[in-house]
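Section 3.1: Structural characterization of target chains.
Under the original work plan, the team committed to producing a structural model for every single-chain target entering the pipeline before any wet-lab resources were allocated. The record below documents one such target. The sequence was received from the expression subgroup and is listed exactly as submitted; it comprises 63 residues.
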Amino acid sequence: MGLTYDVLKTKVKSEGKFTLEELMWMVDKMKEMDRTLDSVKKTTEERLSRIESKDDDHIPGGI
């Protein structure tokens, strides 16, 4: 059975429960999303840092 969000949504509406396989699929998807969000956060922070340092006219070490 190929699991998708729509399949799970339909099943929970009709049966009101999930199997262990379905729960594990959901946990794996959440873990994958968490990794993706962490990567996006890191990339965004790096880009923001570069933009902010580009606009900063301070000379490191001073004159």
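The first helix runs from residue 5 to 15.
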